[in-house]
Amino acid sequence: AHLEDLRQYERVLGSRNALLKAARLAPIDPQMLDVYEGLLARHGATIMRRRQRVLATFAPRVREVFAAIAAPGLRCDVRYQVRGGAAEDLEGALLAALRDRRDRDRQLGFTTRGPHRDEVELWLDERPAQLHASQGQARALVLAGKIAEIRSLEASLGESPVLLLDDVSSELDAERNRALMQHLDELGGQVFVTTTDPAYIRVQGE
């Protein structure tokens, strides 16, 4: 269902962008933009609501795993940053944003509001990770996201996917490595790990 909504949205988005580019050369029928914007708002709101539902269960899993493999007391947050349509009535807000940006979009030749412009942002202690995370913290964030993804798949499908990790331990200190390997040991599924040193992949109790 989500894939079909994405396809519908992308088709309409391409049509609106083509019309916006044409409008830079000659007058166009504004009613065509009305039609495309109504469809974008409808499909876009469905996509955004689904993303919000997924993130509501995914973000706590990321925080839990990150707390175990990163520095103690460092809080991680995963946030869905909406670039238009951030309201209880997502469809209405997105439609209003599209119409409000119509002249600007015509100048640029593309659509500047909608879920295709949204971001999933990572924050560390209320600071954007993109700007403030160390290399080790960035690697821990990626690992926490992957493990949270695995747990989400387990909860939804009833089985664990196969996990491939290529030399992830070389940029983590010994304590974070132990925490990571313990998490992987508890996942229950198959895990393939490459490493430069066998000491990196020992689990607790070995």
Which characteristics define this entry?
206 residues, mainly alpha, two-stranded parallel sheet, 7 helices, 59% helix, elongated
Please characterize this protein's 3D structure.
- A three-stranded antiparallel sheet has the order 1-2-3. A two-stranded parallel sheet has the order 4-5.
- The chain has 206 residues and is mostly helical.
- The longest helix has 40 residues, at 30-69.
- The mean pLDDT is 88.
- The protein has seven helices and five strands.
In short:
The chain is mainly α and 206 residues long.
Q: How are the elements arranged and paired?
A:
Layout: H1 2-23, H2 30-69, E1 76-81, H3 90-100, H4 102-108, E2 119-124, E3 127-128, H5 129-132, H6 135-157, E4 163-166, H7 174-187, E5 191-194
Parallel strand pairs: 4-5
Antiparallel strand pairs: 1-2, 2-3
Strand content: 5-15%
Query: Which strand order spans the largest sheet, edge to edge or round the barrel?
Result: 1-2-3
How big is the Rg?
A: 22 Å
Overall SS class: mainly alpha
Low-confidence stretches: none
Biggest pleated-sheet summary: 3 strands, antiparallel
Number of strands: 5
Distance from N terminus to C terminus (CA atoms, Å) equals: 45 Å
Work out the helicity level: 55-70%
